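EI: anyone free to look at a 154-residue chain?
SC: sure, send it
EI:
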Amino acid sequence: MESGTGGEDIYTLPQEPQPELPGAQEMFHAEASSVQPVAGGQSVLASGTDPRFDQALIHLLRQVKNQPGFTVPLSALSRLSRNSGKQLRVLEFLLAHQATVVTTNYLLGPGIVGVRARPMVKPDSYDLRRSMKQTRGLGPAHTKLLKALRRDHI
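SC: here you go
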């Protein structure tokens, strides 16, 4: 690894049955948000620590389940949830369904894990495009993916 570049390594997921979508008893309807969502997604107002799944998160999980190779751009992993159990459950679902999760500082996907070299970039949930413009300290796969996302989606 070059000095100043982020670390990237290969990763093999264990062979396990794919997790299913949350059941109806785990879902709730959240109020729509006025914040502009990324790439035509949905944006809602909900407690970040609520263990239940709102309609926007269920929509994302369904997209991932139905579209192998789906890329999920986030400012930070905490945008999935601030409830650690729920966050890990969502990450397990995304990775098991071959999605790539890319944040300002981290890359998690089929066969790859990456982290930005220090200093980390402060995530900006209101302007994802701006915070993902900063590629210094990223590994080559992470940089390439962010450039493609900025060009084609965000």
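EI: The chain has a mean pLDDT of 86.
SC: 👍
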